[in-house]
């Protein structure tokens, strides 16, 4: 059943957005989108503003990731939209259902040189599922509904709409469409049965579960499948925490041993990309389970590749009626390797070195982070250690840039996480290089009373570039930063607080002060520049 609503373009858009469960707007002020602000202001719709448009899109993406619903960013015309394209692209790679609404110069004088006049669609179309200019206010509810439906239909992803000035400022009487149901993608039952048979018969199977397991609300189904078939589970991205660390089938440290010894590798809800050796696991057969046929790998020929609703596929694996091989010896072998790696890590995380090693930072963090803390990685070298040493205890608590690897997510993700979970710890792990991309948005967090903790690993270099360049060429360029820079002073000047830590023994007290502060608080840790570029990690 449909209803008719009257209002200007901003009011029409907001009515359609509310129907889809959108509950907040992230933006940077711009006159082209004033009607959207007016609609939000008059109805008490929360509006959060930032200092760079990329942070608005990243904040919307954090909401989309954490809450598994659409996130909204509103950007003014021209440079407002182009400043948000890296955020859109990250959302595209991460399959995050983000809607970006853009302003647009007036259509009635198009081509005359209006302020910020440009056609955004050719730029955003390659990194969105749907991109459209809406020329009439009457059409705004229909366009918003269609865009959000596309964003939420697997394989999920970002969408874009822009409104010429006359469309969004005009008043109209328009129809608000009924919400179309999004039916689950039904998998091919024969392909699912084939996958289940391969896993059940394998001697040394391994599961690697990724972000789409969380995004598709398939965590419980994953656990049921793993327990039913008795298969060890490794995770990446937002799949981390799908099995808590204490679960007998949860593994994190023994991945290299597992992939070298496995005869069947089951990759669920994540692409066969550079993070997973492009799907090359030696002699092991590969089962690739994805949420839509479009996500099947074109560069690998899996032994089975079920595509569809992950809950349906994983439930079918759990209910496999055939015989199952005994995997007890294989699980025990991996547990031995896991325990040995954990013992080595424990030594590294307790290291009393001067300067501080990154491992010690994470050793101290593990003592203060709650099980439901949201941990955000924004960096390269320093954050790669987080993937190795931190083990999320619950699903939906880990945010990183994902396979696109875009730095600058930190403050936007922090804003979206704080809005999503007002009562949880929010901890941003940031390299000193990444700090240059978004740290100014601490002002946005402080002004809007959104406290978070920021831990900067400050080694004064671009760690992932300096050491490899030296190894390749015998020298490095463009890889140095100002040593021992006081990022904590920057945060204090912007309305937060912080301190610099140079001794390992001071880390614990500093972190406890940070989580008790009630304002954005930056712990600036001077880390060893020689202890960089780890050869392996479980990041992503």
Automatic annotation (TrEMBL):
GO MF: acetolactate synthase activity
Record domain Thiamine pyrophosphate enzyme N-terminal TPP-binding: where: 9-121
Domain Thiamine pyrophosphate enzyme TPP-binding: 378-525
Key words, A-Z: Thiamine pyrophosphate, Transferase
EC number: 2.2.1.6
Keyword hit for Iron: no
Cofactor: thiamine diphosphate
InterPro entries hit by this protein: DHS-like_NAD/FAD-binding_dom, THDP-binding, Thiamin_PyroP_enz_cen_dom, Thiamin_PyroP_enz_TPP-bd_dom, TPP_enz, TPP_enzyme_TPP-bd
Top-level division of the source organism's lineage: Bacteria
Domain Thiamine pyrophosphate enzyme central, first and last residues per copy: 192-317
Pfam family, one: TPP_enzyme_N
Keyword Nucleotide-binding: no
Family, similarity comment: Belongs to the TPP enzyme family.
The protein's name in its UniProt record: Acetolactate synthase
Organism: Micromonospora reichwaldensis
């Amino acid at each position: 059943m449909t209803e008719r609503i009257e209002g200007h373009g901003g009011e029409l858009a907001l009515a359609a957005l509310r129907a889809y469960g959108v509950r907040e707007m992230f933006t940077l002020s711009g006159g082209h989108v004033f009607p959207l602000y007016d609609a939000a202001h008059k109805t008490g719709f929360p509006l959060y503003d930032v200092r760079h448009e990329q942070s608005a899109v990243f904040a919307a993406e954090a909401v989309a990731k954490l809450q598994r619903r659409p996130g909204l960013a509103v950007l003014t015309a021209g440079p407002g939209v182009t400043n948000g394209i890296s955020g859109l692209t990250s959302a595209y790679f991460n399959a995050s259902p983000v809607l970006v609404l853009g302003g647009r110069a007036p259509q009635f004088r198009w081509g005359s040189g209006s302020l910020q006049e440009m056609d955004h669609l050719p730029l955003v179309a390659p990194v969105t599922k749907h991109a459209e200019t809406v020329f009439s206010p009457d059409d705004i509810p229909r366009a918003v509904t269609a865009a959000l439906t596309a964003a939420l239909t697997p394989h999920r992803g970002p969408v874009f709409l822009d409104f010429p000035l006359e469309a969004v400022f005009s008043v109209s009487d328009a129809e608000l469409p009924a919400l179309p149901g999004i039916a689950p993608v039904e998998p091919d039952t024969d392909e699912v049965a084939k996958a289940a048979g391969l896993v059940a018969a394998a001697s040394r199977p391994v599961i690697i579960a990724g972000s789409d397991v969380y995004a598709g609300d398939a965590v419980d189904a994953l656990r049921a499948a793993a327990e039913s078939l008795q298969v060890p589970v490794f995770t990446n991205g937002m799949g981390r925490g799908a099995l808590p660390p204490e679960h007998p089938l949860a593994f994190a440290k023994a991945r290299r041993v597992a992939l070298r010894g496995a005869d069947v590798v089951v990759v669920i809800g994540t692409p066969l990309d550079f993070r997973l050796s492009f799907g090359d696991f030696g002699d092991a057969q590969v089962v690739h389970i994805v949420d839509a046929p479009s996500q099947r790998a074109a560069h690998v020929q899996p032994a089975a590749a079920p595509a569809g609703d992950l809950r349906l596929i994983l439930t079918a694996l759990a209910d496999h009626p055939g015989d199952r091989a005994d995997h007890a010896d294989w699980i025990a072998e991996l547990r031995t390797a896991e325990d040995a790696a954990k013992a080595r890590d424990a030594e590294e995380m307790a290291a009393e070195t001067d300067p501080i090693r990154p491992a010690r930072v994470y050793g101290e963090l593990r003592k203060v982070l709650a099980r439901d803390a949201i941990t955000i990685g924004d960096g390269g070298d320093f954050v790669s250690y987080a993937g190795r040493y931190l083990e999320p205890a619950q699903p939906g608590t880990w945010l990183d840039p994902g396979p696109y690897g875009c730095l600058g997510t930190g403050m936007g993700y922090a804003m979206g996480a704080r809005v999503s979970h007002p009562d949880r710890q929010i901890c941003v792990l940031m390299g000193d290089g990444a700090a240059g991309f978004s740290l100014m948005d601490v002002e946005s967090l402080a002004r809007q009373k959104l406290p978070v903790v920021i831990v900067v690993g400050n080694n004064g270099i671009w760690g992932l570039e300096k050491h490899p360049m030296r190894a390749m060429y015998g020298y490095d360029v463009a890889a140095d930063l100002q040593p021992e820079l006081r990022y904590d002073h920057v945060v204090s000047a912007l309305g937060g607080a912080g301190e610099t830590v140079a001794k390992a023994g001071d880390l614990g007290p500093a972190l406890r002060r940070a989580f008790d502060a009630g304002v954005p608080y930056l712990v600036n840790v001077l880390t060893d520049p020689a202890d960089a570029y780890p050869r392996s990690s479980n990041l992503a």
